[in-house]
Amino acid sequence: MLNFALFGAGRIGKMHARNLASHPKAKLRWVYDINPEASQAVGQETEAQIAQDVETILSDAQVNAVLIATSTDTHADLIVQSAKAGKAILCEKPIDLSIERVDWCRDQLQSYSVPIQIGFNRRFDPSHRKVAQAAQSGEIGELEQVIISSRDPSPPPKEYYLVAGGMLRDMTIHDFDLARFVLNEEVTKVTALAGTLFDPVAQEIDELDSAMILMQTARGKLCHINNSRHATYGYDQRLEAHGSQGMIRSENQQATTVERFNANETYRRDPLPEFFIERYTQAYLDQIDSFIEAVESGNPPSVTYEDGRRALILANAAYQSLESGKTITVSYA
Amino acid sequence: MLNFALFGAGRIGKMHARNLASHPKAKLRWVYDINPEASQAVGQETEAQIAQDVETILSDAQVNAVLIATSTDTHADLIVQSAKAGKAILCEKPIDLSIERVDWCRDQLQSYSVPIQIGFNRRFDPSHRKVAQAAQSGEIGELEQVIISSRDPSPPPKEYYLVAGGMLRDMTIHDFDLARFVLNEEVTKVTALAGTLFDPVAQEIDELDSAMILMQTARGKLCHINNSRHATYGYDQRLEAHGSQGMIRSENQQATTVERFNANETYRRDPLPEFFIERYTQAYLDQIDSFIEAVESGNPPSVTYEDGRRALILANAAYQSLESGKTITVSYA
Amino acid sequence: MLNFALFGAGRIGKMHARNLASHPKAKLRWVYDINPEASQAVGQETEAQIAQDVETILSDAQVNAVLIATSTDTHADLIVQSAKAGKAILCEKPIDLSIERVDWCRDQLQSYSVPIQIGFNRRFDPSHRKVAQAAQSGEIGELEQVIISSRDPSPPPKEYYLVAGGMLRDMTIHDFDLARFVLNEEVTKVTALAGTLFDPVAQEIDELDSAMILMQTARGKLCHINNSRHATYGYDQRLEAHGSQGMIRSENQQATTVERFNANETYRRDPLPEFFIERYTQAYLDQIDSFIEAVESGNPPSVTYEDGRRALILANAAYQSLESGKTITVSYA
Amino acid sequence: MLNFALFGAGRIGKMHARNLASHPKAKLRWVYDINPEASQAVGQETEAQIAQDVETILSDAQVNAVLIATSTDTHADLIVQSAKAGKAILCEKPIDLSIERVDWCRDQLQSYSVPIQIGFNRRFDPSHRKVAQAAQSGEIGELEQVIISSRDPSPPPKEYYLVAGGMLRDMTIHDFDLARFVLNEEVTKVTALAGTLFDPVAQEIDELDSAMILMQTARGKLCHINNSRHATYGYDQRLEAHGSQGMIRSENQQATTVERFNANETYRRDPLPEFFIERYTQAYLDQIDSFIEAVESGNPPSVTYEDGRRALILANAAYQSLESGKTITVSYA
Known about the structure:
- By secondary structure, chain A is an alpha/beta fold.
- The first copy, chain A, is built from 13 helices and 15 strands.
- The longest helix of chain A is centred in the last third of the chain and has 20 residues, at 305-324.
- The first copy, chain A, is globular.
- The A-D interface holds A 141-142, 144-145, 147, 149, 151, 189, 191-198, 210-216, 220-224, 226, 228, 230-233, 236, 242, 244-247, 321, 325-327 and D 141-142, 144-145, 147, 149, 151, 189, 191-198, 210-216, 220-224, 226, 228, 230-233, 236, 242, 244-247, 321, 325-327.
């Protein structure tokens, strides 16, 4: 049984709170948010205590682990403070938008031996996971190509854009991590094309809403990511791996297995999940399972700090490619 | 919040115990089984108290509701005792194998006003439910035909056969209820063909392992059920409704959305669920939701005692058709 | 190379004319129809000569084979005349609506040794054919159950109803033959339920528009057929075979492999084929191939006169079941 | 009715010969191949006359059109000679491997007004065509992204590699054309990553066997192509278009609609088509239809010489990107 504290009680924090509250091996002991109403809402729903500050939580010896779901700019500090306090850490992605801050935080962490896991939830999706396993087990032979289609249902509001750090660091970062997970080799080359094709808000603030990326590993494996900030048909999340002996793909999901046929429709299924909370329900649960198991067993978490760092390095490389018109050779040093 | 007692801690009882234990509006207060080891196992897993007898449970004023998952021959007595004790009742199907006992029990229940719901779980399956809703909402126009495919993965052991009351009363009873649920009109005619095609155990004890049934309502709607006691590809559960404006069907499920392609395989998906506990996970949860909601609101349960009785009457009619070589006109009096 | 004469230049005759005209091993030498305009239309399109009467054709020694696509009531006489003239015969289904006429014609045919094939086109559909092959090759083990879904897009006009001989002899006859083809054993029991659920014209003339049938072979294999005279979503033609080692099904077809996704649609494919000419295009071509091959090789045709006769016997048994409320034991004597 | 001469009687030439021979509006009058056995084989099968040289054909006033299916290095000369002779031209892709030769040929063609169509067969595939139509009709709103998956079943022999001009000019050229067809705007930027991942022959002669490409139009539309010289599961040909109002995709095809289920298989369909002749059967027929219609109507062919030229320019740009590590700005001047 692990006693958790939750930092951040926004949309994703609330979901984590519920998952922790109903987890047989977790207890949600504290919740903290800069917005007291948000933490109160979680407190009422889950019996977690409401903390007025971070220190109260970190000084509570009963707390074994923290889940950081605050705004991105606070992640690095909270990680370092929690590490100092000896708490195991599950931190939402991205670690930080600045690679310098990420490196600083990494250096700080050298002094502490707490387990830290980055919240790349998609690695835990049962369908995506089977693709990754097939890519690594030899089920499809030697892996050659990976294709990731990842499209959000609709563009975020302006305020979100302004703090998100850019599409590739905010949205594509999940796909960079998923690519690394399936490729199981470091990416050495990145090239990208992107644009603002439909969203007037993105246009106004000079943001991207559409992107395509190519990557290659040292041994030549190829990977493609396609992204869009909108998809009328729902949250599109697909993954495809090609190997020397076959192909395996993870297709989109529907809530039921119903198919409809009439004068205008043939094989119409239920809509795709609305967004990540609906799509990755099981993945978020399995992510917590995996974290708890790592903490309890003393094994290293399955998604490391360095995984978080390298996904950001790939996002930065893609931006560099867009700006320079060059294929970027990636350095992780 | 409803305090539950569970009668019966076998395979399905254990599943109900877990569902009740993790339900936000339920508390599993007691468990009873004639086999003390079975009740202890549930007790350890769920914090329910272990009762030595039924009376202890029924005399506990804190108990609001009982879930009856004992062997079929004990259902009727437990229903009557629980009703006398004023407990709300959720009873596994079938009520009893004998229509005389079912009628006797019904007569006893006249004196008590406790809510009673029969455990026809398939009505709560989200996919089947959408088919039923489309059949009744006009989404497919006026309903005309219903087709139910329902195949178990493998035949039961001899001991099960001997107490199960015959394939049509044990297995097809679910399909009779599902037919009634989707048709939403009483069946007036039943005809059937069946046989023992593959199972040597069934052969030995003169049991069926394969069956096909046709039914018709007073207004002419048609329904077909096909059943088998085995299916190498898993637990096959499909439902199809045809109306004047279209068709809707509930197809089988897979654990993931993965599709595989190689030299020998094209579009291979994950296997079907193994059996009812895996297939109807959500349905069993929603069944309890529905029961709790009915008890708390005072509304009648959505699956009534009479529903349980009429499914048995249809099973009996199908047997009569097999024996007499006639299309049976069904009477529910 | 076979020289053909075509009797009947209606809708299906026209299609046959085109198929014969473009077949590398066939030449369409003559066309005859009681309606001279119909035969002229075919003549213009295909270079076939237009015959004023049947005799001209049958006395032409160059004619090797006749394809009979006239109205059903003329089939038996044309078969006998063509057999007398020594022509190979490909005759559209049904042979005749009266079993007495069919038997009379059969007796006449004893004296002649011409090859005769009945036009049960569905046996030649590549998808249905694979199901039948799997049922017989052991691919699905020992065959146990067959399920046929067969639904026309929309009810015929009154004039058609009046000469068609009843739904089961006109429409279901195809399914009776398909059942026999897949079962590969003679049906010994038939029971049916049917009604008039939607078509006011059928209602007016006391015809059926909806039917469900069950059949069983001597060795116990089970078969279900469901039929409707309408389906808003197109011509629904599905076939499913269950064996001791697995299941194989032939699903509906679409003109393309396109799938559409938008705010209202998920996985929408192209519509089903409109009707039999669009759905069984390849089957009609393969039927002619098979006939030509039989005639040229001297091997018996793959669909025999007796196949035509027995499908009618099953249709008659189903009517008997509807009228008597009994499961009919079928006799083929 | 158009009288055709066929140059080239290899694998694809033979297929064209059959298609022309059975086309109601075409007559295959001549066939020529440098290998007399090849032209004889076609002559026997189709009643075409066998020409000893090109001149015999081009001086035959009865010949209206030529279909050029010879080796790539002969295309440009044959085009110019045929144009001089006033014949309409349908020429297999690519026009030539050298853009200088293509430009020279284009300049020569200025003097003649014969219709010329390049054999980009995929534009005529009914499924791909629906995607292109949806992209242009507004069915999916404003087009934003196109994704092309195109994988050959197995690598070619060494001799083929040595004359094919490189993977991007030989294989991807089809995808460049398909991209242009669906995008319906000129591509202005190209970037690519590629490698030799599996084929020892390709390795030996320093050829590619795997490639991924990104492209963008002046208005920002994005396109991705992924290619491989092998796919154990057959000839993989998929196309996907994303617009502001939805997505449409053309999935792979199977020969039948059969689905298999057993202890090891769930939903297994028939294999994908083996290669282009099986996959694009209908497309090759519709390509000839389209060419004949253009010639007879005097309208410009739907796939122009310039289309052939621009696909080559894109292939060259992709090679440039691979060599320079840069995103190439494409010039069509």
